[in-house]
Specification:
alpha+beta, about 35% strand, single chain, about 150 residues, 4 helices
Length: about 150
């Protein structure tokens, strides 16, 4: 009888006690007033684990340098960028926001908005969000959230 109890505790308890946060990255993202969605890369059901989210910085964003948003978009092609569904989930559950993100404007480039003719991306800073137009330069303060 002891062998059965040990087997159950080793193999089944971890599944029963998981605190995984599953985010639907296929849902329609929040659209700020006056904006429209230009592009939304669906990402399926994401089991959010901050240990698997990487803040990508181009070499051209480091050491005081900057990169144009269009060049940054070229560099992240093929990477699994997070979309605004994840941003909105984190805003609703701020305890999940990694401490390492403090002071950074974390870009969620899987969703691109149109703001009166200007393409832009929402970012998370602290427990709020902002928006950056994709016409300007991005410095080290603007990493892209990517799943590794």
């Amino acid at each position: 009888m002891k062998k059965i109890i040990i087997f159950i505790s080793i193999f089944f308890i971890p599944f029963l006690t998981t605190n995984a946060q599953v985010i639907n990255c296929d849902s329609k993202p929040f659209v700020p007033p006056g904006f429209s969605v230009a592009e939304h890369q669906k990402g399926g059901q994401l089991e959010f684990d901050s240990q698997k989210v990487f803040l990508f910085l181009s070499e051209n964003q480091k050491n005081g340098k900057s990169i144009t948003a269009s060049d940054l978009q070229k560099e992240i092609v093929g990477k699994k960028v997070l979309n605004a569904d994840v941003l909105d989930y984190l805003l609703a559950h701020p305890k999940l926001i990694p401490e390492e993100w403090a002071g950074k404007c974390v870009l969620f480039m899987g969703t691109i908005y149109n703001d009166k003719g200007h393409l832009c991306v929402r970012f998370l800073i602290g427990e709020t969000w902002g928006c950056v137009w994709l016409e300007g330069d991005l410095y080290s303060r603007f990493p892209v959230a990517i799943v590794i």
